[in-house]
Amino acid sequence: MKAFGLDKDHKLCSETAIEMLFARGTADAQSALAYPLRAVWREHSARRDQSQVLRFLISIPKKRLKRAVWRVLMRRRVREAFRLHWRSFPELDNRGIDLALIYVADKECSYARVEGAVVKLLEKIDATETVNTAD
Hints:
Blueprint: H1 15-22, E1 30-34, E2 37-43, E3 55-59, H2 68-85, H3 90-93, E4 97-103, H4 111-134
Parallel strand pairs: 3-4
Antiparallel strand pairs: 1-2, 2-4
Helix pairs in contact: 2-4
């Protein structure tokens, strides 16, 4: 079962990396929407030498879901969907990509809907990165 796990290496916790991901005016960051999630990602070129691993964070804004119970539930659903499907895109793990998954719906969604959104976003990220590296 370890094959489906998420290591600590996959957690995006560096404040500077997060700031660079959400900085305005930088052309590095790209985004895509697959309701109920929005993804923001960028290739972290400085980290290519150290560890080429996909790092991610999940944000469930209090503005969208007021109750902590629902925020925790949606965070667990997003994390579970990501954990099960990110290995389907092996090229994503070989690049230094920072990824933020942001919940944009105003109410809780079913796991099937969240899972479909995660898969669509991972496909978009994979397609975009393959086009950029081919140039």
